[in-house]
């Protein structure tokens, strides 16, 4: 017998009941110890909106159109992503009848380019019956829920759930009478009712697309790489939605829940709000423009992701790493002065799709079960040795370019490996990376003077001359400083 059955407990009691079974407490029922009081019924029809493969539900987000007792509304609940996404937010349908632009915007990074469409229909009927003592003291509230789920035109689930919420005045005798009456109807006691979302099938209950990484000592390469990618992906999504929600009226977002709800907790519709504005009636400015939601924090997170990809490139398929880093580069090339989070390019969503898939199943080129930490330590030694060798041989522009790439790769490996020695190496490599930036020859150093006037060509030539002098000075400065950097790096890696 569970703790909920103890004397004086107000813990709810849960039962599953046959769809056609009689009501456990018909109106007008009277005994010497209890009277069935007032009853009310709530009806709700729900259309869940998601991608065909349930990307929102897998991310812990419910987006739906609900009709509660004849009143239509849009609804979003994403407790896991609070405070950036709404918690149980209901929005009255406006004159246009369109999904609120704020909801559409907030769902976009989770959809990653997939089409938003109806994926399931739920019909829900709740009958609430009060149980009272002869002196009108409230003894219990009985909730009788009938829930039907329809997917692709087929009823996939039809359940009836019974919940008894005892009050302090409910005696042991009254409790026993009530539970015996329910059990006599064929009800089965359960520990807890599964959420309605879990009744949608394996697609809705699958693992999240954005897990919080958990690593243990001795983890294999596959587990370690997956955790690194998942962590970077989670960082990107969090800064994305933090920028998107700027200026939105999300309402109260504090919650202790982690799983979203789809059914209304109350028939009272006083919580409806007009999120955003009705574009047909209100000429208000939109926050979905180029002035709200800076992409600078997003670009910082993308840069960190790109560095992690560089660090793990020795473990992953080279073609895939190149494609992912190219997508990173296209996002980093966006001008934050003219592009807001609401207008990022489609390459960004392609990048999210690539990293989401890779976090689940990375394309490794090594044994996935070999220990990750020793493997990365070996890669750190090898990458540092290559960087030192490249910086020792700086003869032409290709040599400088190869040296910078090698130094950046070694620094990335050192940054991603959380050991004391790696921290020391990373500390020694950071100034080298910084000093190599001005040694890079720019594409603009080559100027076409064919269509310039004599004066313009002269000025262009002088500009190229100054750039060439600055480049030579930077390269010479690096050569002068390199021997000292070299000693410090080798001392850090070898101890």
From TrEMBL:
InterPro entries: CYTH-like_dom_sf. It comes from Cutibacterium porci. Residues 250-273 are annotated as: Disordered. This is Uncharacterized protein. Residues 256-271 have a biased composition (Basic and acidic residues). It comes from the Bacteria.
């Amino acid at each position: 017998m569970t703790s909920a059955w103890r004397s004086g407990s107000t813990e709810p009691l849960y039962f599953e009941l046959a769809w056609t079974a009689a009501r456990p407490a018909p109106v007008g029922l009277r005994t010497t110890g209890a009277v069935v009081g007032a009853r009310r019924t709530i009806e709700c029809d729900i259309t869940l909106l998601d991608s065909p493969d349930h990307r929102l539900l897998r991310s812990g987000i419910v987006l739906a159109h609900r009709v509660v007792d004849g009143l239509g509304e849009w609804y979003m609940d994403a407790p896991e992503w609070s405070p950036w996404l709404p918690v149980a937010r209901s929005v009255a349908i406006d004159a246009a009848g369109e999904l609120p632009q704020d909801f559409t915007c907030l769902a976009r990074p989770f959809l990653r380019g997939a089409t938003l469409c109806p994926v399931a229909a739920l019909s829900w009927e709740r009958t609430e019956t009060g149980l009272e003592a002869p002196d009108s003291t409230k003894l219990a509230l009985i909730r009788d829920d009938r829930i039907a789920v329809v997917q692709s035109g087929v009823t996939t689930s039809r359940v009836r759930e019974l919940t008894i919420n005892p009050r302090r005045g409910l005696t042991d005798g009254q409790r026993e009478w009530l539970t015996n009456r329910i059990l006599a109807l064929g009800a089965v006691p359960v520990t807890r009712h599964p959420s309605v979302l879990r009744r949608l099938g394996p697609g809705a209950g699958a693992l999240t697309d954005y897990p919080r990484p958990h690593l243990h000592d001795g983890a294999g390469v596959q587990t370690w790489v997956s955790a690194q990618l998942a962590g970077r992906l989670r960082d990107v999504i969090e800064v994305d939605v933090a920028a998107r929600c700027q200026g939105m009226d999300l309402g109260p977002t504090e919650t202790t829940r982690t799983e979203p709800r789809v059914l209304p907790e109350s028939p009272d519709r006083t919580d409806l709000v007009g999120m955003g504005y009705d574009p047909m009636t209100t000429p208000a400015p939109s926050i979905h423009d180029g002035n709200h939601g800076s992409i600078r924090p997003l670009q910082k997170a993308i840069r960190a992701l790109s560095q992690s990809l560089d660090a793990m490139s020795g473990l992953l398929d080279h073609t895939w790493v190149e494609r992912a880093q190219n997508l990173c580069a296209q996002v980093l090339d966006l001008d934050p002065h003219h592009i807001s989070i609401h207008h990022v390019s489609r390459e960004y969503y392609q990048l999210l799709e690539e990293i989401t898939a890779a976090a689940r199943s990375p394309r490794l080129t090594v044994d996935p079960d070999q220990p990750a930490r020793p493997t990365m330590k070996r890669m750190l030694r090898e990458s540092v040795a290559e960087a030192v060798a490249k910086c020792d041989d700086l003869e032409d522009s290709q040599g400088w370019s190869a040296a910078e790439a090698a130094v950046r790769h070694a620094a990335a490996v050192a940054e991603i490996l959380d050991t004391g020695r790696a921290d020391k190496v990373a500390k020694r490599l950071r100034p080298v990376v910084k000093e190599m930036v001005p040694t890079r020859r720019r594409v603009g150093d080559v100027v076409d003077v064919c269509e310039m006037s004599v004066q313009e060509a002269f000025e262009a030539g002088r500009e190229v001359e100054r750039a060439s002098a600055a480049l030579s000075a930077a390269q010479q400065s690096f050569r002068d400083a390199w021997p000292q950097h070299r000693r410090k790096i080798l001392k850090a890696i070898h101890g």
